[in-house]
Amino acid sequence: MTRRGLSAETCDALSGWDLLSTWAPEIQDTSTQGVEESSRRRGPEGLGVRECLSLRAVTAGYEGAARPQLREVELRLGAGELVCVLGPNGAGKSTLVRVASGLLAPWKGSVHLLGGPIATLGRAAIARSLAVVEQMQDLAMGFSVREVVAMGRAPHQGTWMRASESDEAIVDDALERCDLEGLAHRPAHALSGGEQKRVAIARALAQGPKVLLLDEPGAFLDVRHQLDLYELLVKEVKERELGCLVVMHDLNVAAQFADRIVLMKDGRVVASGAVEEVMTWQTLKETFDADLYCGLNDLTGARFFLPMRGGAHPTKAPVSPDDPDPTRS
Known about the structure:
The protein is α/β, with parallel strands linked by helices. The protein has helices at residues 8-13, 23-26, 35-38, 93-100, 123-127, 145-150, 165-177, 193-206, 223-240, 251-257, 275-278, 281-288; strands spanning 51-60, 70-78, 81-86, 108-113, 116-117, 130-133, 211-215, 243-247, 260-265, 268-273, 292-296, 303-307. The chain has two domains: 8-277, 3-Layer(aba) Sandwich (Rossmann fold); 280-329, no CATH class. β4 (108-113) and β5 form a beta hairpin.
C-alpha cells in the first residue's frame, strides 16, 4: 500500500461493503449530504436525538423462500445510541442486518438511512455513511492487516482510489483503537479468528460511518478483547454520535453495555426498550423458551442472567422490587 492509493490487486479483492461490483460509475453517485438534515427528529424513545436509521413495517425474506424471515419489523436507531438485538437462533437477527444495510431489499415496508430511503442510494453513498461487520469474516489472501483496514477508506477516495495523508492518519487511528498496531504488517488471512474480527471492526471504523451494524462482533474474542471491544464501541458511539446496532447472543454483555434492547422471535420484534424494562424473567422466558435466573451485580448494578436446567426455579431472585418476577419467593 502506498499513498498513491490502492493497488489493482487490492481493488479486485474488495467485496461486500467494499463495493466490488459498483466501483466505477457509482463512486461519484449521490451523496447523503442533505439527507442527514432531514433526519433531525425525535429519537426512537421520544428523545430529542437525530434518527439515523429506521426500519418501517419491514417484511423481508430471501429469494425462493416460502415465508419471510422478517415480519412487520419496526425499529429506530438514534445517533449516540447503542442498541443490542437479542433472540434465539432463527429469529431473523442476521437478516435484519442485511436489510438494514441495504444488501437485501424488503418485500414490504422501507428502510431509511439518515432520513432518506436507502433504496434511492447507490452502494458508494451508503458506504460513506454506513459500515457493516458481518458474523463471518473472509479476509482476502495476500494483504496485510493495514491494507485490509485501508480498504475502509475506498468509498471516500474517488475513482482513482488515491489515499491522502488524512486517509493514512485515519487508518493509523483505527489500528490503534483496535489494538492492531503490532499486527499491521502481518498477513490478514493468517490471523486467528478473534484477530480477524478486530481487523474487520478496524476497517469499519476507518470507513468513518454515521451508522455501524455489527453481527456477533464478540464471537471468537477472548474475555479481555471482548470487553475492550464493547468499551470501544460505547466510546465511539458517544464521542462520535454514531448509531450502533449490535446483534448478539450474550445477555450479560448486552445488559451491561446497551442503551436499549430489542428482542426478536420468529422474525418479529417482541419487545424494545431500556434494559430494566425489557430484560425481565417473564419476557426472556417467552423469547428464548428457557428459564433464567435474573440477578443484580452488587458492584455495578447491572443485571445478570444464568440459565437454569430443567426449569428449576430459584428461591430468590435479587432484582428490583418493581420487577414482576414470578421466581421471587
